[in-house]
Structures are given as C-alpha cells and as structure tokens.
Amino acid sequence: MSETTSAARMQRILLPTDGSEHSEGAVRVAIEAAAKCSSQLFALTMVISNPEVEALAPEIVAKGERRAREILDGVEAKAKARGVTVERLVRHGQDPAHQIVGQAEKRNADIIIMGRRGVRGLARMMVGEATVRVCGRAPCSVMVVPRDGQLPKSRILLATDGSSHSEAASALAGRLAVLCGLPVTIVSVILPNQSDARRAEATAAVERIRSSLSNHGITAEATTVEAVRPETGIITTAAAKGADLIIVGSHGRSGLLEKVLIGSVSERVLGDASCPVLVVRSA
C-alpha cells in the first residue's frame, strides 16, 4: 500500500462551486474533509464571460462578479463555522473544466471535490460535461459528490478490474480507510460471457488487495459479482454492503480517452451512485 498517495492526505483541497443545489454536497464534504484533515481549502467559482461581453456589456460581468462574491461568502461562512480557512478564487472565462484543471495544477491540489453537475450541465445528463472533463484531465484524483452526499462514515467500496490502473485506487482506498477508520469491500465485476480464466483472475485480484489491506490492519473483505454491466454490479454491491464511498480508477482494462467518454464504467457509476464517488488518477 503506497505511503505517498496525495489524495489521502487531502492537505490541499480544491472545491469548485457554482452556488447551485448541485454543489451543496460537494461544499459540505469539502469543508468536513478540510476540518478533519486540517487542510488548506481553495474555493473556486466562475464568472462566465468572454472579452466581447466584457467590452460591450460590462454590467453583465459586474453582475456575475457580485454573484461570485455571494457564492464564496456562503462557502466561507460555512467553513468558518468549522474552523476552516478558505482561499477564495474567482476566474473569468467560458470553460469551467479548463479553469478547474488549471487551478488544480497551479495550487498543487491533492484532490478536487465537486458536484456531479452544475447549472451549465444538460438536464438530461446525470453527470455534467465539466465534471466529466475534470475527471479525465485533472492532475489529481476527483471526488464527485451528489447533492445529499456526506463524508464517508460506514464503509468504502473499492471497485477493481485487476488492471494496473486499479493499483492507485487500491493504495488510496487503504489510506482513506486508515484516515476515516472504515472497513473496505473490494469488488470485481464478472460479465456473463467472460472466460473461466478471467473469473479466476478477478478472484485473485480482489483477494490480493484484501490481503494487502489486512496486512496494514484494515478490516477488508473481497468479493466478485456477476452482472450484465460492470457499473450495475458496482452500484448493487455498494448498496448491499452499505458503502457510502465508491472508489474507482480513472481508466479500466480497455482504457479511456482523455475526456472520459460518455458510456464509460466510471462515468456511469458517477451518474448512478447515491453516495460520493472518488475517481482516482493513476500515475
């Protein structure tokens, strides 16, 4: 189990928020995490604008800036009540994902904690475009929190497919389990058409992780489940085990493109889970 997984330390947390209801869970979890870990919290919000608007309609930009201040005032008040100091970040532009990733790089963030979608997301999408792009491009791991999400208090579910990309997720699950004092369930989903060799490989993979976590004093159990779709097996197992945090790798056996494609296992888990999902960036 890695001793250097930065997200588990959570010393530098970036919280993007647009002030909408979709950000409420992320704000709550980020502040709780910062209080628990004595972290530096960066709260980021956007003024949606471009040079043309700024030149021809400065009153619109001014209105956006006032709204940005109100949003950050609200975050700061909630953080202050928990003894957490906030560094306020306001950025202008039209691409929230670009700004979030850029600020994560600039601030050397250990983790980004954000909502599933914002006011600019399409209503038909459970996961907003900006969230998807951040998960695919961020230099660090990203925790995506639904509106009612909380910092985990019961159990961590680690989903693994046995690939090298799962190793970073396994290390982070172990560090968070120690930090939060939680048990871990490791699950690998087997598809109906997969071979006996793949089934044996899945069983060996979860048992290997269970053994590693147990050797570090973590209560862990390993299981394999059969499902038509991987995300279905992950979500069902999380519900059955009472897990309130799901950890997945940002890439799987087939790999994902930079933007984390619509229809990927990770994104479908993000959209369907009722608890926070931590998408772990592999090195």
- Classified by CATH, the class of the largest domain is Alpha Beta
Proper CATH architecture of the largest domain: 3-Layer(aba) Sandwich
CATH topology grouping of the largest domain: Rossmann fold
Estimated helix fraction? 40-55%
The largest sheet is: 10 strands, mixed
CATH superfamily of the largest domain: HUPs
* Outline type: elongated
Q: What is the string of SSEs from the N terminus onward?
A: HEHEHHEHEHEEHEHEHEHE
Portion in beta strands: 15-25%
Mean pLDDT: 86
Task: Give the tally of β-strands.
Answer: 10
Structural class: alpha/beta
First-last Cα distance: 15 Å
Structure commentary:
- With 283 residues, this protein is an alpha/beta fold.
- The chain folds into two domains: 6-145, HUPs (Rossmann fold, 3-Layer(aba) Sandwich), CATH 3.40.50.620; 156-280, Rossmann fold (3-Layer(aba) Sandwich).
- Helices cover 44% and strands 21% of the residues.
- The protein has ten helices and ten strands.
- The protein has helices spanning 6-9, 24-37, 51-56, 58-81, 96-106, 129-137, 165-180, 196-215, 230-241, 265-272; strands at residues 12-16, 40-48, 86-93, 111-115, 141-145, 156-159, 184-190, 220-226, 245-249, 277-280.
- The chain has a ten-stranded mixed β-sheet, with helices on both faces.
- Strand 9, helix 10 (265-272) and strand 10 (277-280) form a beta-alpha-beta unit.
- The longest helix is centred in the first third of the chain and has 24 residues, at 58-81.
- It is elongated, with a radius of gyration of 19 Å.
